[in-house]
From TrEMBL:
It comes from Kitasatospora cystarginea. Residues 58-125 form the Cupin type-2 domain. SUPFAM superfamilies: RmlC-like cupins. InterPro entries: Cupin_2, GPI/OXD, RmlC-like_jellyroll, RmlC_Cupin_sf. This is Cupin type-2 domain-containing protein. Keywords: Metal-binding. It comes from the Bacteria.
Amino acid sequence: MSTAEPTPARDMTNRQITNLNEDLLQSITGDHGGAGTILAHRVYRADDAPAPIAFIDLVVLPPHTSIGLHRHADDRETYVILSGRGRMTLDGSEFEVRAGDVIPNRPYGEHGLANDTEADLQLLVFEIGPLDGDR
């Protein structure tokens, strides 16, 4: 994925079409205390609609970067590995993840993800909550 200058959005039958690779990904350094700089785009924000989804992010971990170990409160965050491989830490257990894996992170659980390979790791992260219905 490139971080080159954004290209203008394409107008396809009166709909603005943007490209994640070219237009939307932003650099984030030290995400949750992780290593290096990852690329991310928040696809959905809780403020955008009255649904219990807090956010949906597309995230790219370049080689040898990570999302540090962290916890959330009363919500459920899920990682969907779109491409690549990495090492997931979930409530003290560490294991390999690969394209197609869906990893639910329980409320108050500790989790982090590291890309220990030479290729990008791409994932979708979505968070539902808070589960008690409070926003």
